[in-house]
Write a structure and sequence with these properties.
mainly alpha, disordered N terminus, 3-stranded mixed beta sheet, globular
């Protein structure tokens, strides 16, 4: 994966089209590019496994875990976008054909790794819904995240039936934030995601990161403990240069210039 990151040079301009074919990463299923210009700070992860509709197989998951580990250490990355290089598909869920060839021990190890991955990208409900249609219990976190998103009753209905949802249905239930009509280029969802990333990009990086920690950790505990977690995160943000810059910009009626320190 290091080879991929080096070939897709930092802050390389994003091409308007040909995303799936313009990476010089050979057969890599996960590719990375950093955007440039006004979008500097946004990094894209391209999922490119057309033979299996981006299904979560061993190589796919390994490359994605390694990529996330590297990007986590990159202070230049402020917003991360997941993008599919397979037309008409984002991710088909678990690779059940590959899973069928695994021993019970191998399945256990793989599901544990997959659960860790889903903790990072918080999308295991999709995997869970697909798995139930094949006689499997969601094993990557779907039975835990879906009730927290939709409530117990609806989560049970969806998992027990294995029902597949359209984007509009998922949006109506509150499972996804946005559902958009497709455009002529076929990348309407990507364009909406990029617009959202552009809204996040100018915000103070440390405040965004600590806000994420407070929300994620707070959802795992009771409200009193959650307030304590928020307090600790808030205290960490107080001595930052960005907080002082934000206050100065407000006082001087100008846009803030955050540096992530």
């Amino acid at each position: 994966m290091l080879r991929v990151l080096c070939l897709l040079r930092p802050w390389r301009p994003l091409r308007a089209r040909g995303c799936a074919s313009d990476g010089a990463a050979g057969g890599s299923e996960i590719q990375v590019r950093a955007l440039a210009g006004p979008d500097q700070g946004i990094t894209e992860i391209l999922m490119n496994r057309p033979s299996a509709r981006n299904a979560l197989g061993n190589v796919f998951v390994s490359e994605l875990l390694e990529t996330l580990a590297q990007l986590r250490e990159d202070q230049q990355v402020r917003v991360l976008l997941f993008r599919s290089g397979v037309k008409g598909v984002f991710c088909a869920g678990a690779d059940l054909k590959e899973r069928e060839q695994m021993s019970e021990a191998e399945v256990g190890v793989f599901v544990q790794r997959l659960r860790g991955l889903m903790n990072d990208i918080a999308s295991s409900a999709i995997v869970g819904l697909i798995e139930t249609t094949r006689g499997l219990l969601p094993g990557a976190g779907g039975t835990q995240r879906l009730p927290r998103c939709l409530g117990v009753a609806l989560a049970k209905e969806l998992i027990f039936t294995g029902r597949r949802l359209s984007g509009t249905e998922a949006h109506a239930l509150g499972l996804v934030n946005h559902a958009v009509a497709q455009n002529e280029e076929g990348d309407a969802a990507y364009q909406r995601a990029r617009a959202l990333a552009q809204e996040i990009l100018p915000q103070a990086p440390i405040a965004v990161r600590l806000g994420k920690v407070a929300i994620d950790r707070g959802m795992e505990v009771d409200i009193v403990s959650g307030m304590a977690i928020e307090g600790m995160c808030y205290a960490q943000n107080i001595p930052t240069r960005d907080r002082l810059e934000g206050m100065a910009a407000f006082r001087e009626k100008r846009p803030p210039k955050f540096v992530g320190k």
